[in-house]
Design goal:
Number of strands: 21
CATH class of the largest domain: Alpha Beta
Helix content: 10-25%
Number of domains: 3
CATH architecture of the largest domain: Roll
Strand order of the largest sheet: 2-8-7-4
Structural class: alpha+beta
Distance between the termini: 58 Å
Largest sheet: 4 strands, mixed
Number of helices: 8
Radius of gyration: 32 Å
Length: 357
């Protein structure tokens, strides 16, 4: 918009010349559809001034439009502000091949239209284009590295610097079977000495769990921590709740629902207004290796789970997230009435117990 156009539109009627100049500068900074809309608005008011020259209302409206915005003569005349992004918790230390708990920053200003990292985030991690949240599973080790995260929109940009380290994955832990007795071929209890059975060797780390533990803030949420592997489990099967998992009924679901985005275990990540079940946002379906660690081989009946740590476990099949390599339409499972491990088609519906790193 030129000054001649500006004057022709009737801004000269503004009683205060300084206000007129301010309005002119603001209109000059508009572009695209905002400029077109502003021109139409001014032209409409000008026509009213011409039609009703004795009425000062329209002249006063021009003055009010000029004053609106507090004298901001910069490019942000269409409302909103450049984004700012803030991460809490840096420096971050992750473990190779272990899914991270999603890092969601605090954003202010107008929603970003792009979020980028310089340099590129570690292999396996990604950044959401509008929320700037970082998620994924890092697959390569690296020392502490600084990353500049930039959030941008049409009004400008803001950035934050974080540090990420990826440590080597720990060697797999050998866990005890929890078997402390021995039997002969007929099932008769015998002394363990010389049998070569698990009850004699006692190899592996003794199993230890803490929980169910009630969350201090989200008091309806209970978790069980494996003190050996470090995994944090939802104490109850999906569908159950309460300290002893007596409320509700364990529900079954197919593999796609159990592992899907926004369904199954992932739905727990949006609980408690986005803070996650028990304040955690890394909930997922366990791998077959992880799920197998919940079998208590000390039992020879239908209670093949650590009952005090995981109350009301169904004596049936629980699914894992691990696809069966020989047939990708199938996935591995653990049967908690026998302690056995097997595979079945993903469309079958089984019980689900969710885990978080």
């Amino acid at each position: 918009m030129t000054r001649n156009n500006f004057d022709a539109f009737g801004i000269r009627y503004a009683s205060n010349k300084a206000v007129s100049e301010l309005f002119f500068r603001r209109l000059q900074n508009l572009s695209g559809y905002r400029a077109a809309l502003a021109s139409l608005l001014v032209l409409s008011i000008y026509n009213c001034v011409q039609t009703f020259p004795e009425n000062n209302t329209w002249r006063n409206l021009l003055v009010a439009l000029a004053v609106a915005g507090g004298g901001n003569t910069g490019g942000n005349t269409g409302g909103g502000t450049a984004p700012t992004v803030t991460y809490s918790g840096s420096p971050y230390s992750f473990t190779q091949n272990s899914a991270i708990t999603k890092i969601t920053p605090s954003l202010t200003g107008t929603t970003p239209t792009g979020c980028t990292s310089s340099p590129t985030l570690p292999v396996g991690l990604s950044i959401n284009a509008t929320s700037c949240a970082i998620s994924g599973t890092p697959t390569a080790t690296q020392g502490a590295t600084s990353y500049t995260i930039t959030a941008t929109n049409s009004l400008g940009s803001g950035n934050a610097t974080i540090s990420i380290e990826v440590a080597a994955a720990l060697a797999p832990q050998t866990l005890s079977t929890s078997i402390t007795q021995c039997w002969d071929s007929s099932g008769t209890l015998i002394a363990c000495s010389g049998t070569g059975q698990d009850g004699e060797h006692q190899i592996g780390l003794a199993r230890s769990f803490t929980g169910p533990t009630q969350h201090v803030t989200y008091t309806s949420d209970y978790t069980t921590t494996d003190n050996v592997t470090g995994l944090v489990w939802k104490s109850c099967s999906e569908g159950q709740s309460g300290a002893d998992c007596s409320s509700g009924a364990a529900s079954t679901m197919n593999w796609a629902t159990a592992t899907g985005t926004g369904t199954g275990c992932d739905a727990l990540n949006s609980a408690n207004a986005g803070n996650g079940y028990a304040g955690r946002t890394g909930w997922r379906v366990p791998t077959i290796q992880e799920l197998s660690t919940l079998v208590d081989y000390a039992y020879a009946d239908s209670k093949w789970s650590f009952a005090s740590a995981f109350p009301a476990t169904a004596p049936s099949i629980y699914r894992s997230a691990t696809t069966y390599v020989a047939s990708t339409t199938a996935a591995w499972y653990v049967h908690f009435s026998s302690g056995s491990v097997g595979a079945a088609v993903k469309t079958n519906v089984y019980y689900v117990r969710c885990v978080s790193n």
